[in-house]
Amino acid sequence: MGAAPAAQHPLLRHGRGGRRGGIHRSTLSQSAMRAALATWARAAVWRAVRLAHHADFAWLLPALARLPLPLAYGLSALRGRLNAATGRDWRSVALGLRHIRRQSLAAYALLPGPPTATDTKRWTAQRFATEARDELEAQLVAANRLGELQCAVAAADLSMLAQRRGRGLVLLTPHFDSFYLGIAFLARATGGRFNSMASAVTRDPRVDPAVSRHFEHKYRGLERCINGGSVPDMEDGLRPFYRMLQAHETLVVLADAPVLPGGAAMEVDFLGRRRRLAGGALRLAQRSGSDLGAFVCRALAAGRYQIEMCRIGSASDPETLERAYRFLGDAILAQPGRWWAADLLPALTEAPGPGEAALDAHGKA
Fold first, then answer.
1. Is 278:264 a contact under the CB 8 Å cutoff?
2. Higher pLDDT residue, 237 or 355?
3. Domain limits of the chain?
């Protein structure tokens, strides 16, 4: 018996046949071919997306940071609209999913309200525009252009910061508006040494190398602006952060982080209900005898910003933590679209699981 005739190859079958089952086999073959073509098309699209994504971070963003500020901010807004239209975020591209938009929409539904479809559409567009602006701001700092940016800080807030000299300070802020620039602005306004936390997740092998370089430039650029402070990876351990606070320095910690596996957790009123968040910042502040506060940095116009702070207090006072999260929650609810980590909200709503350490506002498990 020889090989089957070419006409009998599944890809060449016409769908007719005198033998029983021929039409069924043809249908299966056509379905398999369509599935294979769809898989190939999806892979081709993602290859194109990743190439464009690499070019964006490798060349476009640094180029924007060299332009006059009004033009740079205008093009950043356009870049944000394109990202919103395509659902592009560096995490989405790393995972090959468009999950950030979907999870952000799910988060908006959890906010007090409830929001309308028009609200969520507007907030989603603002979310991508705000993240795009943050990426531009990081490049501006890396390009040594912080001096061209203006920021208003209330005299009362500066006085409050000055009065707590002699104690460490943990400042909470979420992935909201221009928080990254806010760290540099506070260091510039006070002359004090500020520190923050980075994460090795930006060097995950799935993350585009250009994106990893962007974050490296972002953190190292910030270090040049915070009066000798540093931005180490949190995965390297907590000792460096305890040393900062014991030296009466300021440490800025993201307030909207979910609980890490095996990490400390705390429960606090935030965005309309009792929520479960990472408790490392509270633990750092309490064990080092530091104070606790919070701030947000708002973008007003191209190159113009404003910092708002809540009253600083002892980390051992439960009201200090609750006050900080009321302040941050009010800021987010006033402008939900500027909270560009809203996709994390569903992970902040679960009750503590069995065997996990949950801290209350007293820092007790």
1. yes
2. 237
3. 148-342+352-359
